[in-house]
Amino acid sequence: MSRLGHFVRSRLHRRLFLWFGLSIFMTGVVVATVFSLVGGNTWKQEMMRLKDFASHRFEEVWSEPARRDALAQSFAKDLDIEVEVTDASGKLLVLAGGLCKHAEFTLPVVRAGTTLGQVRVCNGLARGKTPLKVMLPLLAACLMLWMASGKMARRLAKPVDALVQATEALGAGRLNARAEVLPHATGEFTVLAVAFNHMAGRIEKQVADQRELLAAVSHELRTPLARLRVLTELLRDGGGNPKTLDQVDREVVELDALVGELLASSRLDFGQLTPRVLDGRTLATQAMERAGLALEMLDVGAPETGLVGDATLLGRALANLLDNARRHGGGVEKLRVQEQGEHLAFCVEDRGPGLQPGEETRIFQPFYRKDRGGEAREAGSLGLGLALVQRIARAHGGETFAENRDGGGARVGFTVKKAGPPDAIERPAA
């Protein structure tokens, strides 16, 4: 579809406006055609009768020059026209009302089958008129009707536009969006807007309730998890079975990680990002320290590492990248921070065998595990870490990537837009 076609078809009030205009134009054409068909023959018949009458009057006085001249002068004066009377040879006999340059019609003067002469008539009434003056009233009437139709079209389409804007806002995640109930809207549009607002209100309440429940459950889970970790430490000191304690401790750590990922995922689901000014080097350093890795493995190649983002979510993404390299890549080789145009890239290089063909995209799918046997489960892998990294990157205007390195191993990372998340409205300074 062309731009003009999209512009015309994209808004309801424009389409109504054009349809009203087309209807006015077609109505004018039909009325003009009907007048031409109905009134045209009558006008021609009246003109023929007028010509016959004038011709007979001149035929009666043709032999009397004084009366003939007086009749021509009378026609010219009373009808405000120019009249030229000539004989059969074309000799001018009478000139009344001025010189006739362009004859409207010619009346032959015939008596007993013999042509006595002719009368040329020029319509003097047409000298002061132009076609524009005839068309101006019609054009003005059509313009007024079309302007009124534009006002009517906008009035009809405005409630629909308001409802569309509210629907788009709700679809974009702004759950507090409501359709404005316009005072001049018709009954059907008012009922539709009220129904939409009720629906949006119920959706907002349900989502808020789910969010509160999720947050409450997550926080409630963290308390027994912390107690379990304390108990495992006490059991170790009391001489418990080390293997059993290791298994319990591993499960507790996995549950704690799952709760953290659940909280991060819920923030993404509900758009609860808190963007603020951050430093990429600091984020990477903190992630390395939390993972217990040497800072010598950190390589910052970007001259400027400032960015705007959510510190908690970006920290979770870096932790997942490092954890993925530790579990499935044979350990972390390097964590690099690089600049890519308007984006900042974080990537982890591992020491593993690399990615299999097709895994460059599959590893970011939820619940995908390279090892699907019992070893993966024993290692605490559920295939959620890199999927969450991808969601965090996209929420910050970036994307994830994965590739094999030339010297062996894989390189997995993500980019973020330095200017901040696309939907961020407030960006408070750190």
TrEMBL record:
Enzyme class, first EC level, given as a word: transferase
Pfam families: HAMP (PF00672), HATPase_c (PF02518), HisKA (PF00512)
HAMP domain: residues covered: 154-208
Keyword flag Metal-binding: no
Organism: Myxococcus llanfairpwllgwyngyllgogerychwyrndrobwllllantysiliogogogochensis
Localization, UniProt: Cell membrane
Record has Metal-binding as a keyword: no
One annotated Gene Ontology cellular component of this protein: plasma membrane
Disordered: annotated span: 400-430
Name by which UniProt lists this protein: histidine kinase
